[in-house]
What we know:
- By secondary structure, the protein is mainly α.
- Helix content is 52%, strand content 2%.
- The chain has 10 helices and 4 strands.
- A two-stranded antiparallel ribbon has the order 1-2. Strands 3-4 form a two-stranded antiparallel sheet.
Amino acid sequence: MESLKRNKSSILDIRRSLSSFGKGIVSATSISNSINSNLVSGNRDKRNAIIAKSKLYNVRRQAVLRREKEDVIEASQISTLSKISPNKKISSSTKGFLGRIMDVLGATLVGWAIFNLPSIIEGVTDLVKRIRKTIQIFQTWYDNTTKWFTTLTSDLDDKLNQLRNISIDFEISEIEKSDSENKNIFQKIYDSIIDNVNLLRSPTGKKPGQEPPTVNPSSFSGKVGGNPKGLLKFISSAEGGYGSTYSGHLSDFSRAGEDITQMTISQLVQYQNDYLAHQRAKGVPKNSRSAAVGAYQMLYPDKFVKAAGLTMSDKFTPGNQDKLIVAYMASRGLTAERAKKDPSGFAKGLSQAFAGVPVLEAMQGDVQPVERGQSYYRGRGSNAATTSPEKVEEAIKLFGESYKPSTNQSNNNVNPNLNANVSVDKTTNLALDNESKTIEVPVPVQIASSPAPQQSQSSGEGDVKIAPVGGTSLNSFIFTELQYT
Length: 485
């Protein structure tokens, strides 16, 4: 019984719960219908607002397009620019604030340019005319100046040719004859002093007449004679090519690629100065700088220009290099006559003039004793002989055999038999060779221009040494920084 009562109570609770749930569903349905009604009404209002705004936008857009077309038409008519006031342009423009300002500035500038363009064009035209007139005046001045200098040069050449045609052979020959006689007198005095000194200092008691005979080198100076072509070719093979430059510091020299054979001698001297300045800037020691050039590695080509019959405006061609070296050899007494009569002295003088030419017998070199086949300047820098002593002997022999005594031979330093048209040996170019083939460390050294009489060795403390007359430097090409600084 109790159990039935509890079941009945539970059923009644469930019934009430279901009734309450049904009421909730009805209420939710009513609320949903209300929300739907509100959404439909809101969407309808929004659609109407959008349609109204679209119509307003279309109306405004059409007004803007119409105004832009009017602006384009007005801009195409120049006459209307001055009739439109800035206030009207600003107020009627459809652009933003910055765009309206730019419109006003643009219109103002265009208007100014239009009204002032004629005067601007007129001013430019007048300026062009003035420039043309100035150019014409300068052209006339340049033509007249060029004509004046041309006439002056022509007149100077005529006068120079007239001076060259004046015969002074007699006076020159007389002066040279007198000079030669004076040299011979002084040489005899000198030889007498040397003989007496040698007699006093000789431990064997030999008389001067018992010493090996020597030849007076001063009698050979002033002319070369013979045919020096073979000897010049030999010297060039030991020194360098016609277009070569001392290669010690040439790799980073800015003018290294220039052809020195196409330079005038004046330009060549400047080239050498620049090369020395380059070495000085690199910190190369003063006694290690060199600017030797050409087939004979010449250091002072300008010193022998006059003696070679050239001028500073002549080019440093292979032919002119030969003339310069012939003049240099003549100044040192390296002549065909000496090669024939005193080959030993000639060989020594040749080795003292060119570091690449070896000595033919053991002797005291520039800084140390040297043996046959070694450079006279061995021990100074990297100087070394670049040929054999046998070739030296052969070259001297051939040069001596070319000597032909002639009383009418000119005393000019340049041998008239020398063929200046010497082919350029482009295979030997020190500028392309990293190994030095000439005097790398040029140092002025006072030595005789010809071999001095051999002094007998003595252990006595009273030995007397007298330097021969006519001493000169290593060769006339040896650098002293004074002349090229």
